Amino acid sequence: MGIAVTGLGIICAIGNDAASVLGSLKAKQTGIGPMRYLQSNHKELPVGEVKLSNEEMKQMLGVDANAVISRTVLMGAIAIRQALDNSNLTNSKFKEGKRVVVISGTTVGGMDITEQYFMQIKEDNALLPILEKHDCGSSTREMADLAGLNDAEVCTVSTACSSAVNAIILGAEMLQNNEADIVIAGGTEALSRFHLNGFNSLMVLDKECCRPFDKDRAGLNLGEGAAFIVLQKRPESEGIFIRGYANRCDAFHQTASSENGEGAYLAMSKTLQMAGLRPQDIQYINAHGTGTPNNDSSESAAIRRVFGRDIPPVSSTKGFTGHTTSASGSIETVICILALQNRFVPANLGWREQDEACITPTQGIDNISLENILCNSFGFGGNDSALVISKEQGAGSEEQEDKSINFLVQRAEATILSPSGELDGGTLRKYISSGEARRMTRLMKAATITSLKALQEAGVESPDAIITATAYGMLETSEKFLIDMLENGEETLSPTLFMQSTHNTLSSAIAIRTKCHGYNMTYTQGKDSLDWALRDARRLIASGKAKTVLVGSHDEATPTFQEFFRRMGKPVPPMLYSKSIVLTAVKR
Amino acid sequence: MEQLINDLKLQIKEALHLEELSLEDFDENTPLFGEDGIGLDSIDILEIVVLMEKEYGIRMSKPKEGKAIFQSIKTIAEYVQENRKK
Predict the structure, then answer these.
(1) Neighbour count for residue A469 (Cβ, 10 Å)
(2) 20 to 30 Å CA-CA from A458: which of A76, A222, A439, B72?
(3) How confident is the model at residue A421, as a pLDDT?
(4) Across chain B, which distance is largest between two alpha carbons, in Å?
């Protein structure tokens, strides 16, 4: 049985549905242009916006025009509805007796709304409910409900810009493991002033249209959008299949990619291995290709390592859509499916001059027979993933999965419940040098200490996989960055704060520390986050994909955050919570 | 110049959370990057860029041009001396 794609939906800068996206791709028409909907001072920065206002999207979804709903949710709900319609599964019929799971990748979540109302919320109790929809998990729940999937289980993964591909990988794994019958997986991300300014503080935004792989490339353009695919296990040998996939970690730096692209290389190699394909079986690579000097040379190095001299046509489609961050993986997966179905290779817009350090991208090919496409998706923290999308389901993994003999044993556990002496002084120094500690927030220190303690106790130096569960992620840094932006304007914001605002900051910091290039995942689904993380660990161990898994549950609060809870009359979350568990496989 | 060097030392120490570094092992010629220096990275360069704008009104748009300027406190001070707007 293969993991078949039985429906798709997409909304992005080059179209509000699959047909218009296909039209723009074939006409080589970019969707990047001057800012129209985002209310930012940085008008000099071109963006890839969805060409609809929030009001227009609410109308499309048939919801009250006055309802406060994040653009992330609106776009996601539209894409999910399209995917369901496209799959020929009418809502009422397909849900009967079926386990339906919606898996979304996002990092920004409801930030577009939070940043708009934050200062007012501080004063006005009537606006407090807006904050309850801020976190990524809540935005996925709301989106599934708006798409008519009220009964479906929902899950949110957040590995920065590779989130959506990791959502698809999780969906495929759940189907393989018989935990679901129908999965709707993808990602959604709206432009926000928060992350536009964040990327701007990292000086990686081009003031012109981006030029991936070009010699004079000067950064990326941010985009927005959502794409979801319906996945089901199907016996047919032909169709559209997610034939192979892998999630690996560069374990190099929080924002930069390693020179030789180790994480990307591992992700691509493992994906091909799982698909049972050789490099020469791939007819097109949809690159991550953001247009930053660092990503494109690192990705090129990795592609060269995998493909040698015979590199198939490669293009980055970010010159069309902009970098849609957490949604980019599913948007590009849908673009690959459209290419496969319509026999063409999308162009790499903006490329002019060869860079020695980069591959030579294609300017687009028509009438080409495509069987297998490799789709790359990389993120901050070196969260690198890849998929193979194929017309045939293939023979399956070459790896022998020894399902019967592994079971899970909890080896060790370490917990820090409040900011105690452990975060400075003796315990801290035992695990973290002063050089490492200087940029770490309390939560990062706590997560690192509990992880290292648990690993040490379990006698494991570097685990095979690292999985983090966090309901709210990096609150302290996110709040500082947000407040600085709202109070002092959109200039001179701290790149360090932004770099450490993504939910996957913890998982990747621990990967860097333990030199773990293996599977690296972050779940952010409210109070269910740890449950999802443990389910994943169990799946990895049962399928023989990992023998030692580090699972962490880490959350923090800030005084402002606690005050919001007090005002809502809800239990106040603790200032710090960090628990790490090492799970190992034991042969029966 | 000496005053500027001292100011920069303190400002950089604070911005980059180098609290544990004593001012003595951090002289104006100490290389800021690389293993025989303080060992700062690309994100630190960006933080110094922010600092330059906040404190001295100097806007740098390309991180690349920063590399030469941010060799040591001394090279930064010379650059600030020439380009400061406040």
Answers:
(1) 27
(2) A439
(3) 66
(4) 33
Mark the ranges of chain A whose per-residue pLDDT is less than 50: 398-400, 405
Q: Terminus-to-terminus CA distance in chain A, angstroms? A: 28
Q: Token pair 């399928």 is at which residue?
A: A543
The β-bridge partners of A379 are: A383
Helix (H) or strand (E) holding A407: strand A406-416
Q: Which two tokens stand for residue A187?
A: 């990602």
Instruction: Give the distance from residue B66's alpha carbon to the nearest chain A alpha carbon, in angstroms.
Output: 12
Interface test with B, best of A292, A294, A439, A505 (most B CBs within 10 A): A439
* Residue A194, token pair as written in the block: 């928060």
What is the rounded CA–CA span in Å between residue A265 and residue A301? 8
- Give contacts of A254 with chain B, Cβ < 8 Å: 43
Contact between A542 and A406 (Cβ < 8 Å): yes
| A550-577 residue pLDDT tens | 999 999 999 999 999 999 999 999 999 9
What's the total number of domains in chain B?
Answer: 1
Cβ pair B42:A256 closer than 8 A: yes
3-state class of A368 per DSSP? coil
Task: Cite the active site residues of A.
Answer: 161, 288, 323
CA-nearest of A385, A369, A213, A383 to A304 is A213
Contact A254 B16 (CB under 8 A): no
B chain contacts of residue A495, beta-carbon cutoff 8 Å: 43, 46-47, 50
- The residue length of chain B stands at 86
Total residues belonging to chain A: 588
Rounded to an integer, what distance in angstroms lies between the CA atom of residue A519 and that of residue A483?
A: 34
For residue B20, give the CATH number of its domain: 1.10.1200.10
Compute φ and ψ for A41, nearest 5 degrees: -75, -15
Cα gap A320→A212, rounded to integer Å: 11
Tokens of A91: 């809502």
- The pTM score is 0.96
Q: How far is A449 from chain B (nearest CA, A)?
A: 20
Comparing CB atoms, the residue among A201, A434, A439 nearest residue B20 is A434
The parent domain of residue B74 ranges over: 2-83
